[in-house]
Amino acid sequence: MQVSFEVYRGSPDGHIVSDTTTRALGPTEVYIEITHSGICASDKYFWNTTQVLGHEGVGIIRLLGSNVTTVKVGDRVGFGYVRKVCGACDNCETGWDQYCRNIRLYGDCDFDVGSFSHGTVWDVSCVFPIPDGYLSEDAAPLICAGATVWNCLSHFGARPTDRVGIIGIGGLGHLAIKIAAEMGCQVVVLSRSDEKKADALQYGAAEFHLLDQIDRSSFQRLNHLLLCGSHMGDLASPHGY
Protein backbone atom coordinates (compact mmCIF):
# COMPACT_ATOMS: atom_id res chain seq x y z
CA MET A 1 0.00 0.00 0.00
CA GLN A 2 1.38 3.41 -0.98
CA VAL A 3 0.50 6.80 0.44
CA SER A 4 1.36 10.29 -0.82
CA PHE A 5 1.28 13.52 1.16
CA GLU A 6 2.52 17.11 0.99
CA VAL A 7 5.64 17.94 3.00
CA TYR A 8 7.80 20.99 3.71
CA ARG A 9 11.56 20.60 3.38
CA GLY A 10 14.57 22.72 4.03
CA SER A 11 16.76 23.74 1.08
CA PRO A 12 20.41 24.70 0.49
CA ASP A 13 19.50 28.41 0.45
CA GLY A 14 17.56 28.12 3.72
CA HIS A 15 14.07 28.51 2.25
CA ILE A 16 11.28 26.10 3.20
CA VAL A 17 9.91 24.44 0.07
CA SER A 18 6.83 22.34 -0.59
CA ASP A 19 7.22 18.82 -1.95
CA THR A 20 5.37 15.50 -2.15
CA THR A 21 6.46 12.29 -0.42
CA THR A 22 5.25 8.89 -1.59
CA ARG A 23 5.92 5.90 0.65
CA ALA A 24 5.00 2.26 0.86
CA LEU A 25 3.41 1.47 4.23
CA GLY A 26 5.51 -1.17 6.01
CA PRO A 27 4.03 -3.95 8.19
CA THR A 28 4.76 -2.12 11.48
CA GLU A 29 4.08 1.41 10.22
CA VAL A 30 1.09 3.72 10.38
CA TYR A 31 0.03 6.61 8.18
CA ILE A 32 -0.80 9.69 10.27
CA GLU A 33 -2.74 12.69 9.01
CA ILE A 34 -0.92 15.50 10.81
CA THR A 35 -2.98 18.20 12.50
CA HIS A 36 -0.38 19.93 14.71
CA SER A 37 3.39 20.31 14.94
CA GLY A 38 5.67 21.86 17.50
CA ILE A 39 8.79 23.80 16.55
CA CYS A 40 12.06 22.71 18.14
CA ALA A 41 15.25 24.79 18.29
CA SER A 42 17.05 21.92 16.57
CA ASP A 43 14.87 22.40 13.47
CA LYS A 44 17.19 25.24 12.43
CA TYR A 45 19.99 22.73 11.82
CA PHE A 46 17.96 21.24 8.97
CA TRP A 47 16.89 24.46 7.23
CA ASN A 48 19.82 24.24 4.81
CA THR A 49 19.29 20.56 4.03
CA THR A 50 16.58 18.76 2.07
CA GLN A 51 15.24 17.05 5.21
CA VAL A 52 11.48 17.32 5.74
CA LEU A 53 11.29 19.57 8.79
CA GLY A 54 9.78 18.96 12.22
CA HIS A 55 9.71 16.11 14.71
CA GLU A 56 7.01 17.09 17.23
CA GLY A 57 3.86 15.86 15.53
CA VAL A 58 0.28 15.12 16.51
CA GLY A 59 -2.36 13.73 14.20
CA ILE A 60 -4.94 11.06 13.41
CA ILE A 61 -4.09 7.54 12.27
CA ARG A 62 -5.67 6.88 8.87
CA LEU A 63 -3.97 3.65 7.73
CA LEU A 64 -2.35 0.67 9.48
CA GLY A 65 0.43 -1.66 8.41
CA SER A 66 -0.45 -5.35 8.24
CA ASN A 67 1.14 -6.21 11.62
CA VAL A 68 -0.08 -3.21 13.66
CA THR A 69 -2.34 -4.14 16.58
CA THR A 70 -1.60 -1.59 19.33
CA VAL A 71 -3.43 1.36 17.73
CA LYS A 72 -6.41 1.70 15.42
CA VAL A 73 -7.63 3.94 12.64
CA GLY A 74 -9.01 7.16 14.10
CA ASP A 75 -6.70 7.24 17.13
CA ARG A 76 -5.08 10.59 17.93
CA VAL A 77 -1.36 10.05 18.42
CA GLY A 78 1.94 11.86 18.74
CA PHE A 79 5.43 11.11 17.44
CA GLY A 80 8.86 12.58 18.10
CA TYR A 81 12.57 12.41 17.30
CA VAL A 82 12.83 8.63 17.45
CA ARG A 83 11.37 6.92 14.38
CA LYS A 84 11.77 3.28 15.40
CA VAL A 85 13.12 1.08 18.20
CA CYS A 86 13.54 -2.68 18.04
CA GLY A 87 12.00 -3.54 21.43
CA ALA A 88 14.28 -6.57 21.72
CA CYS A 89 17.81 -5.37 22.55
CA ASP A 90 19.15 -5.11 26.11
CA ASN A 91 18.47 -1.37 26.32
CA CYS A 92 14.90 -1.66 25.05
CA GLU A 93 14.14 -4.51 27.44
CA THR A 94 15.42 -2.56 30.46
CA GLY A 95 13.48 0.64 29.82
CA TRP A 96 16.19 2.58 27.98
CA ASP A 97 14.74 2.37 24.49
CA GLN A 98 16.10 5.83 23.64
CA TYR A 99 19.44 4.00 23.50
CA CYS A 100 18.11 1.14 21.37
CA ARG A 101 20.94 -0.72 19.62
CA ASN A 102 19.00 -0.55 16.35
CA ILE A 103 17.42 2.87 16.71
CA ARG A 104 16.27 4.95 13.75
CA LEU A 105 16.31 8.69 14.40
CA TYR A 106 14.80 11.69 12.66
CA GLY A 107 17.52 13.45 10.67
CA ASP A 108 19.70 10.33 10.41
CA CYS A 109 17.47 8.42 8.00
CA ASP A 110 14.17 8.66 6.12
CA PHE A 111 14.75 12.27 5.08
CA ASP A 112 11.39 12.45 3.29
CA VAL A 113 9.23 12.49 6.45
CA GLY A 114 8.73 14.86 9.38
CA SER A 115 5.98 16.81 11.14
CA PHE A 116 5.98 19.92 8.92
CA SER A 117 3.65 18.12 6.54
CA HIS A 118 0.09 17.06 5.92
CA GLY A 119 0.90 13.43 6.69
CA THR A 120 3.68 11.07 7.68
CA VAL A 121 4.58 7.38 7.93
CA TRP A 122 6.01 6.34 11.32
CA ASP A 123 6.81 3.04 13.00
CA VAL A 124 4.19 2.09 15.57
CA SER A 125 6.91 1.46 18.19
CA CYS A 126 7.35 5.24 18.43
CA VAL A 127 3.75 6.41 18.16
CA PHE A 128 1.98 7.40 21.37
CA PRO A 129 -1.75 7.90 22.07
CA ILE A 130 -2.73 11.41 23.21
CA PRO A 131 -5.15 11.32 26.18
CA ASP A 132 -8.66 12.66 25.69
CA GLY A 133 -9.08 16.20 26.93
CA TYR A 134 -5.49 17.18 26.11
CA LEU A 135 -5.23 19.85 23.42
CA SER A 136 -3.16 18.77 20.43
CA GLU A 137 -1.33 22.10 20.33
CA ASP A 138 -0.25 21.56 23.93
CA ALA A 139 0.71 17.93 23.37
CA ALA A 140 3.01 18.46 20.37
CA PRO A 141 5.91 20.20 22.23
CA LEU A 142 5.80 17.56 24.96
CA ILE A 143 6.74 14.89 22.41
CA CYS A 144 10.32 16.26 22.32
CA ALA A 145 11.19 18.77 25.05
CA GLY A 146 8.71 17.31 27.52
CA ALA A 147 9.87 13.75 26.91
CA THR A 148 13.51 14.81 27.30
CA VAL A 149 13.12 16.22 30.80
CA TRP A 150 10.59 13.56 31.85
CA ASN A 151 13.09 10.83 30.96
CA CYS A 152 15.72 12.47 33.17
CA LEU A 153 13.38 12.89 36.12
CA SER A 154 11.78 9.45 35.90
CA HIS A 155 14.79 7.30 35.02
CA PHE A 156 16.99 8.84 37.70
CA GLY A 157 14.41 8.48 40.43
CA ALA A 158 13.20 12.00 41.23
CA ARG A 159 10.64 11.67 44.02
CA PRO A 160 8.19 13.98 45.78
CA THR A 161 10.00 16.36 48.18
CA ASP A 162 13.35 15.90 46.35
CA ARG A 163 15.18 19.15 45.70
CA VAL A 164 15.55 19.38 41.93
CA GLY A 165 17.87 22.07 40.58
CA ILE A 166 17.28 23.40 37.06
CA ILE A 167 19.65 25.61 35.09
CA GLY A 168 18.26 27.24 31.95
CA ILE A 169 14.65 28.38 31.52
CA GLY A 170 14.08 27.91 27.80
CA GLY A 171 12.18 25.26 25.87
CA LEU A 172 13.49 22.46 28.08
CA GLY A 173 13.82 24.32 31.35
CA HIS A 174 10.32 25.72 31.66
CA LEU A 175 8.86 22.25 31.07
CA ALA A 176 11.32 20.74 33.56
CA ILE A 177 10.08 23.19 36.19
CA LYS A 178 6.43 22.41 35.50
CA ILE A 179 6.86 18.63 35.39
CA ALA A 180 9.08 18.44 38.48
CA ALA A 181 6.68 20.67 40.43
CA GLU A 182 3.72 18.46 39.42
CA MET A 183 5.70 15.44 40.65
CA GLY A 184 5.83 17.07 44.07
CA CYS A 185 9.50 18.01 43.90
CA GLN A 186 10.92 21.17 45.43
CA VAL A 187 12.15 22.97 42.32
CA VAL A 188 15.21 25.20 42.69
CA VAL A 189 16.03 27.36 39.66
CA LEU A 190 19.61 28.55 39.22
CA SER A 191 20.22 31.36 36.75
CA ARG A 192 22.83 33.87 35.62
CA SER A 193 20.12 36.52 35.20
CA ASP A 194 17.24 37.85 37.29
CA GLU A 195 15.12 38.40 34.17
CA LYS A 196 13.34 35.04 34.33
CA LYS A 197 12.65 34.95 38.06
CA ALA A 198 8.96 35.80 37.68
CA ASP A 199 8.50 33.13 35.00
CA ALA A 200 10.30 30.49 37.06
CA LEU A 201 8.13 31.12 40.11
CA GLN A 202 4.98 31.16 37.99
CA TYR A 203 5.92 27.79 36.44
CA GLY A 204 6.19 26.25 39.91
CA ALA A 205 9.70 26.89 41.24
CA ALA A 206 9.98 27.06 45.02
CA GLU A 207 13.30 28.92 44.94
CA PHE A 208 15.21 31.12 42.51
CA HIS A 209 18.93 31.84 42.92
CA LEU A 210 21.44 33.84 40.93
CA LEU A 211 24.47 31.65 40.40
CA ASP A 212 26.98 34.37 41.31
CA GLN A 213 25.14 35.25 44.53
CA ILE A 214 24.62 31.82 46.09
CA ASP A 215 25.70 31.56 49.72
CA ARG A 216 27.22 28.09 49.70
CA SER A 217 27.32 27.93 53.48
CA SER A 218 23.52 27.97 53.69
CA PHE A 219 22.43 26.60 50.30
CA GLN A 220 20.64 23.28 50.81
CA ARG A 221 21.90 20.23 48.95
CA LEU A 222 20.20 19.26 45.68
CA ASN A 223 19.11 15.69 44.98
CA HIS A 224 19.14 16.22 41.21
CA LEU A 225 20.43 18.88 38.81
CA LEU A 226 19.10 19.28 35.27
CA LEU A 227 21.24 21.31 32.88
CA CYS A 228 18.72 22.71 30.41
CA GLY A 229 20.56 25.75 29.06
CA SER A 230 23.00 26.26 26.22
CA HIS A 231 25.60 27.98 28.45
CA MET A 232 26.35 26.37 31.79
CA GLY A 233 29.58 28.10 32.69
CA ASP A 234 31.97 26.64 35.26
CA LEU A 235 29.79 25.27 38.04
CA ALA A 236 32.86 24.40 40.09
CA SER A 237 34.19 27.96 40.17
CA PRO A 238 33.98 30.04 43.37
CA HIS A 239 31.19 32.07 41.77
CA GLY A 240 29.32 29.06 40.34
CA TYR A 241 29.23 30.26 36.75
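^ that was protein a. below is b, sequence first then the C-alpha coordinates
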Amino acid sequence: MKYPIQIFSLGPKIIELHWPKIIAEDVLLEIIALKNNIENKYSPIISSIYHSYQVLSIQLKEIEYASEVTTWLKEFIKRPMSRENLPARWIWTVPVCYAPEIVSSQNQYLQEKNMDLETLIEYHTSKSFLLYFYGFLPGFMYLGGLPETLHIPRKTIPDRKISKGSVAIGGSQTGIYPVDSPGGWYVVGKTPVAIFENGQVKLPFNPGDKVQFASISPQRYTELQEGSVHNWEKTAYCG
Protein backbone atom coordinates (compact mmCIF):
# COMPACT_ATOMS: atom_id res chain seq x y z
CA MET A 1 0.00 0.00 0.00
CA LYS A 2 1.10 3.56 -0.67
CA TYR A 3 0.12 5.03 2.71
CA PRO A 4 1.17 3.98 6.22
CA ILE A 5 -1.66 2.01 7.83
CA GLN A 6 -2.13 1.39 11.54
CA ILE A 7 -3.96 -1.69 12.83
CA PHE A 8 -5.93 -1.50 16.08
CA SER A 9 -7.86 -4.04 18.12
CA LEU A 10 -11.10 -2.56 19.49
CA GLY A 11 -12.26 -5.41 21.65
CA PRO A 12 -11.88 -9.15 21.03
CA LYS A 13 -13.77 -9.24 17.71
CA ILE A 14 -13.23 -5.80 16.13
CA ILE A 15 -10.20 -4.83 14.04
CA GLU A 16 -9.71 -1.35 12.62
CA LEU A 17 -7.25 -0.10 10.02
CA HIS A 18 -6.44 3.61 10.04
CA TRP A 19 -5.03 5.61 7.13
CA PRO A 20 -3.55 9.13 7.50
CA LYS A 21 -6.16 11.80 8.25
CA ILE A 22 -6.62 13.09 4.73
CA ILE A 23 -9.59 12.91 2.38
CA ALA A 24 -8.28 11.69 -0.96
CA GLU A 25 -9.33 9.43 -3.81
CA ASP A 26 -6.22 7.25 -3.68
CA VAL A 27 -6.81 6.60 0.05
CA LEU A 28 -10.37 5.53 -0.79
CA LEU A 29 -9.11 3.20 -3.53
CA GLU A 30 -6.71 1.52 -1.09
CA ILE A 31 -9.56 1.03 1.37
CA ILE A 32 -11.84 -0.44 -1.32
CA ALA A 33 -9.12 -2.76 -2.63
CA LEU A 34 -8.28 -4.04 0.85
CA LYS A 35 -11.96 -4.41 1.75
CA ASN A 36 -12.53 -6.53 -1.36
CA ASN A 37 -9.57 -8.76 -0.54
CA ILE A 38 -10.75 -9.23 3.05
CA GLU A 39 -14.26 -10.14 1.91
CA ASN A 40 -12.94 -12.59 -0.70
CA LYS A 41 -10.73 -14.36 1.83
CA TYR A 42 -12.69 -14.12 5.08
CA SER A 43 -16.34 -13.55 4.18
CA PRO A 44 -17.66 -16.60 6.13
CA ILE A 45 -16.15 -15.36 9.41
CA ILE A 46 -16.99 -11.65 9.07
CA SER A 47 -20.05 -10.24 10.81
CA SER A 48 -19.74 -6.76 9.24
CA ILE A 49 -17.23 -4.59 7.41
CA TYR A 50 -17.57 -0.90 6.62
CA HIS A 51 -15.44 2.18 6.04
CA SER A 52 -15.31 5.95 6.39
CA TYR A 53 -12.84 8.45 4.90
CA GLN A 54 -9.74 6.94 6.57
CA VAL A 55 -10.94 3.94 8.60
CA LEU A 56 -11.83 0.36 7.67
CA SER A 57 -13.62 -1.52 10.45
CA ILE A 58 -14.00 -5.30 10.57
CA GLN A 59 -16.21 -7.14 13.04
CA LEU A 60 -15.59 -10.88 13.28
CA LYS A 61 -18.16 -13.50 14.22
CA GLU A 62 -15.91 -15.27 16.71
CA ILE A 63 -12.96 -14.25 18.92
CA GLU A 64 -10.69 -17.07 17.75
CA TYR A 65 -10.34 -15.61 14.24
CA ALA A 66 -8.85 -12.30 15.38
CA SER A 67 -5.21 -13.42 15.57
CA GLU A 68 -5.23 -15.06 12.13
CA VAL A 69 -6.89 -12.10 10.42
CA THR A 70 -4.60 -9.57 12.12
CA THR A 71 -1.48 -11.50 11.08
CA TRP A 72 -2.70 -11.69 7.48
CA LEU A 73 -3.50 -7.96 7.43
CA LYS A 74 -0.04 -7.02 8.69
CA GLU A 75 1.53 -8.88 5.77
CA PHE A 76 -0.99 -7.82 3.14
CA ILE A 77 -0.68 -4.06 3.73
CA LYS A 78 3.03 -4.28 2.90
CA ARG A 79 2.16 -5.11 -0.71
CA PRO A 80 1.53 -2.52 -3.44
CA MET A 81 -2.12 -2.03 -4.32
CA SER A 82 -3.25 -3.78 -7.48
CA ARG A 83 -5.93 -2.26 -9.72
CA GLU A 84 -7.16 -5.81 -10.26
CA ASN A 85 -8.60 -5.67 -6.75
CA LEU A 86 -10.88 -2.77 -7.69
CA PRO A 87 -14.38 -3.19 -9.15
CA ALA A 88 -15.52 -1.43 -12.33
CA ARG A 89 -16.22 2.23 -11.59
CA TRP A 90 -18.95 4.39 -13.07
CA ILE A 91 -20.09 8.01 -13.35
CA TRP A 92 -23.83 8.10 -12.61
CA THR A 93 -26.11 10.92 -13.76
CA VAL A 94 -28.57 12.20 -11.15
CA PRO A 95 -31.38 14.48 -12.40
CA VAL A 96 -31.87 17.59 -10.25
CA CYS A 97 -34.38 20.41 -10.57
CA TYR A 98 -33.06 23.79 -9.41
CA ALA A 99 -36.19 25.77 -10.30
CA PRO A 100 -37.47 28.01 -7.46
CA GLU A 101 -41.02 26.65 -7.82
CA ILE A 102 -39.69 23.19 -6.91
CA VAL A 103 -37.09 24.32 -4.34
CA SER A 104 -38.79 26.94 -2.20
CA SER A 105 -35.97 27.28 0.38
CA GLN A 106 -33.20 27.66 -2.19
CA ASN A 107 -33.13 31.44 -1.81
CA GLN A 108 -31.55 31.09 1.66
CA TYR A 109 -28.39 29.70 0.08
CA LEU A 110 -28.34 32.23 -2.76
CA GLN A 111 -28.70 35.16 -0.36
CA GLU A 112 -26.00 33.89 2.01
CA LYS A 113 -23.61 33.41 -0.93
CA ASN A 114 -24.69 36.54 -2.82
CA MET A 115 -24.98 34.27 -5.84
CA ASP A 116 -27.44 34.04 -8.72
CA LEU A 117 -29.19 30.81 -9.65
CA GLU A 118 -27.38 30.43 -12.97
CA THR A 119 -23.99 30.47 -11.23
CA LEU A 120 -25.13 27.88 -8.69
CA ILE A 121 -26.35 25.54 -11.43
CA GLU A 122 -23.20 26.05 -13.51
CA TYR A 123 -20.84 25.10 -10.68
CA HIS A 124 -22.99 22.34 -9.20
CA THR A 125 -23.36 20.53 -12.53
CA SER A 126 -19.90 21.28 -13.95
CA LYS A 127 -18.11 18.28 -12.45
CA SER A 128 -18.69 14.85 -10.97
CA PHE A 129 -18.46 14.08 -7.26
CA LEU A 130 -16.65 11.09 -5.76
CA LEU A 131 -18.76 8.80 -3.57
CA TYR A 132 -16.67 8.00 -0.50
CA PHE A 133 -19.22 6.07 1.56
CA TYR A 134 -22.80 5.95 2.82
CA GLY A 135 -23.71 7.09 6.32
CA PHE A 136 -25.75 9.36 8.62
CA LEU A 137 -29.01 8.15 7.02
CA PRO A 138 -29.76 5.05 4.88
CA GLY A 139 -28.65 5.98 1.36
CA PHE A 140 -27.03 9.29 2.36
CA MET A 141 -23.97 9.71 0.15
CA TYR A 142 -20.79 11.40 1.35
CA LEU A 143 -19.62 13.08 -1.85
CA GLY A 144 -16.26 14.79 -2.31
CA GLY A 145 -15.06 17.42 -4.75
CA LEU A 146 -17.44 20.34 -4.27
CA PRO A 147 -16.01 23.49 -5.95
CA GLU A 148 -14.76 25.94 -3.33
CA THR A 149 -17.00 28.63 -4.81
CA LEU A 150 -20.01 26.71 -3.46
CA HIS A 151 -18.70 26.07 0.07
CA ILE A 152 -20.83 27.48 2.88
CA PRO A 153 -20.80 26.95 6.68
CA ARG A 154 -23.56 24.71 7.95
CA LYS A 155 -26.54 26.42 9.54
CA THR A 156 -26.06 27.30 13.21
CA ILE A 157 -29.68 26.25 13.85
CA PRO A 158 -30.60 23.15 11.82
CA ASP A 159 -33.94 22.92 10.04
CA ARG A 160 -36.44 20.69 11.79
CA LYS A 161 -37.28 18.96 8.52
CA ILE A 162 -35.54 18.69 5.16
CA SER A 163 -37.69 16.73 2.72
CA LYS A 164 -36.48 13.57 1.01
CA GLY A 165 -34.86 14.12 -2.37
CA SER A 166 -33.45 17.48 -1.32
CA VAL A 167 -30.02 18.18 -2.81
CA ALA A 168 -28.09 20.23 -0.30
CA ILE A 169 -24.74 21.85 0.46
CA GLY A 170 -23.07 22.04 3.87
CA GLY A 171 -19.49 23.07 4.48
CA SER A 172 -17.36 21.60 1.69
CA GLN A 173 -19.81 18.80 0.88
CA THR A 174 -22.92 18.21 -1.16
CA GLY A 175 -25.40 15.37 -0.90
CA ILE A 176 -28.99 14.20 -1.17
CA TYR A 177 -31.35 13.62 1.75
CA PRO A 178 -32.80 10.13 1.13
CA VAL A 179 -35.60 10.55 3.69
CA ASP A 180 -37.26 13.40 5.55
CA SER A 181 -34.82 14.46 8.26
CA PRO A 182 -33.65 17.36 10.40
CA GLY A 183 -30.52 18.89 8.91
CA GLY A 184 -28.18 21.85 8.87
CA TRP A 185 -27.34 21.93 5.16
CA TYR A 186 -28.71 24.44 2.64
CA VAL A 187 -31.14 22.97 0.10
CA VAL A 188 -30.26 24.00 -3.47
CA GLY A 189 -32.21 21.50 -5.60
CA LYS A 190 -34.41 18.41 -5.61
CA THR A 191 -34.16 15.07 -7.34
CA PRO A 192 -37.38 13.28 -8.28
CA VAL A 193 -35.77 9.85 -8.01
CA ALA A 194 -36.47 7.78 -4.89
CA ILE A 195 -33.27 6.95 -3.01
CA PHE A 196 -34.68 5.05 -0.03
CA GLU A 197 -38.02 3.29 -0.30
CA ASN A 198 -39.75 0.39 1.44
CA GLY A 199 -36.78 -0.07 3.75
CA GLN A 200 -34.25 -0.37 0.92
CA VAL A 201 -31.63 1.90 -0.66
CA LYS A 202 -32.54 2.22 -4.34
CA LEU A 203 -29.18 3.47 -5.61
CA PRO A 204 -26.86 1.28 -7.71
CA PHE A 205 -23.86 3.49 -6.83
CA ASN A 206 -20.85 2.06 -4.98
CA PRO A 207 -18.06 3.85 -3.10
CA GLY A 208 -15.44 4.79 -5.68
CA ASP A 209 -18.09 5.70 -8.26
CA LYS A 210 -18.84 9.30 -9.17
CA VAL A 211 -22.09 11.26 -9.27
CA GLN A 212 -22.85 13.90 -11.90
CA PHE A 213 -25.81 16.21 -11.31
CA ALA A 214 -27.84 17.18 -14.39
CA SER A 215 -30.24 20.12 -14.36
CA ILE A 216 -33.82 19.32 -15.41
CA SER A 217 -36.97 21.39 -15.88
CA PRO A 218 -39.97 21.35 -13.50
CA GLN A 219 -41.94 19.47 -16.17
CA ARG A 220 -39.28 16.77 -16.41
CA TYR A 221 -39.10 16.65 -12.61
CA THR A 222 -42.82 15.84 -12.45
CA GLU A 223 -42.53 13.22 -15.20
CA LEU A 224 -39.70 11.40 -13.43
CA GLN A 225 -41.39 11.69 -10.05
CA GLU A 226 -44.46 9.92 -11.43
CA GLY A 227 -42.42 7.12 -13.01
CA SER A 228 -42.23 3.80 -11.19
CA VAL A 229 -38.67 2.82 -12.17
CA HIS A 230 -35.76 5.12 -13.00
CA ASN A 231 -33.33 4.08 -15.73
CA TRP A 232 -29.97 5.29 -14.46
CA GLU A 233 -27.55 6.72 -17.00
CA LYS A 234 -23.90 5.84 -16.48
CA THR A 235 -20.55 6.05 -18.22
CA ALA A 236 -17.35 4.19 -17.42
CA TYR A 237 -14.91 5.95 -15.10
CA CYS A 238 -11.24 5.09 -15.49
CA GLY A 239 -9.75 7.43 -12.88
